[in-house]
Amino acid sequence: MRQQFQTLEEIHRVALTKLDDVIVDYLEGGAGDETTIRRNRSAFEEWEFQPRVMSGLSSPPTATTFLGLPLSIPVLTAPFGSDTMFHEDGQKAVARANQAMGTVSMVPEAGSFSYEQVAHAAPAAARIAQLHPAGSDENFLRLLARISAAGYSAVCVTVDSPTGGWRERNRRNALEFDSSIIGGNYNPADRDQMEAALGQLFTHVDNVWSWHKLSSLLDDFELPWIAKGITTVADARAAVDAGASAIIVSNHGGRQLDDVPASLPALVEIRSELGPGVDIALDSGIRRGSDVIKAVALGATAVVLGRSAVYGLTADGQRGVERTLELLTEEMITVLTLLGRGGITDLNHEAMRRVPR
Ligand SMILES: Cc1cc2nc3c(=O)[nH]c(=O)nc-3n(C[C@H](O)[C@H](O)[C@H](O)COP(=O)(O)O)c2cc1C
Predict the structure, then answer these.
(1) Is 252 touching ligand 1 by the criterion CB < 6 Å?
(2) pLDDT by residue (tens digit) across 16-45?
(3) What is the count of structural domains for the chain?
(4) If you placed Cys at 342, which of 20, 285, 346, 356 could pair as Cys (CB 3.0 to 4.6 Å)?
(5) Which domain does 13 fall in, by range?
(6) What is the CATH number of the domain that holds 153?
(7) CA 80 / ligand 1 centre spacing (Å)
(8) Please, what is the end-to-end C-alpha distance for the chain in angstroms?
(9) Burial of 281 (0-12, 13-18, 19+ CB in 10 A)
(10) Residue 212 covered by a domain
């Protein structure tokens, strides 16, 4: 039997060997000079732990909640579209892995399978549906009704993508997406609706939504919603004022606007602005268990795995995502034990300091 992966770096390496170069560019690349991609990672090196040795504390618990949803570890998987480009089972495999591991999927609008198909693949798991505030009001409301009927617990609205980022690798490769890859939520008969809602990710648009429009459409919706793609204090405040129950501090993994704040320093400022009462998730740059611990200690309720989940899916489908979550769990328990803190919900700023210059 094949030896299981022992590190996340190994999963990443194997995943890249399975993809064509053009897809590797799409996955690994980002906007502009990819400065934000690099800063997302280097920001984690700017913080160091403050361990307390001889704590007498063992078996630190890792469970928590996000928006009231139980999580075995403070991790969700990101809404990444075009998922069958990476593995034929796409988000169905991701949902099954989350179901097995006690974590939560965010299921993309631009996915290869519909919200209903992914829900059906992992019926016992809690799940969140992601939507773009784009296209017609009628299309948006129809998707909301489907999300609710399919048993989703919340809606994640991606607010940082009124158009696609300036991604030069994709331009160079003339990358195009077939509707069979991104159109899982749309019937062929709804092609116009799909073009209006998802087409703006690839071309420029004249229909950029406002907070006011979004909040008026979500006003009567029964599920809580999350604003994904916040990098500034002003936008965090605007999202909460518009009715968001939680936010995701995210720069889309450096794929949208380059030269925006890295996720970790943005989190610190935004948590300080919003105080302890609002659930805040962080994505963009999470690559190992100690990153999760740092983010939680600095104020995140949970983190969201983008590329790390894609690597798991590509490397070995459902099993690859499960192994990714297992390795994160094991590393987190190791780090928490060495840090001498009781458990994930006991973490705070006191466990961290900025690396002295
Ligand atoms: C291949 C790929 C496709 C993505 N598609 C979407 C999408 O359809 N909607 C969305 O809100 N975010 C999308 N994202 C962004 C992720 O949800 C997440 O914000 C980002 O990957 C986090 O950064 P990380 O990759 O450094 O973890 C995508 C990311 C990748 C890598």
Answers:
(1) yes
(2) 999 999 999 999 999 999 999 999 999 999
(3) 1
(4) 346
(5) 8-352
(6) 3.20.20.70
(7) 5
(8) 48
(9) buried
(10) yes
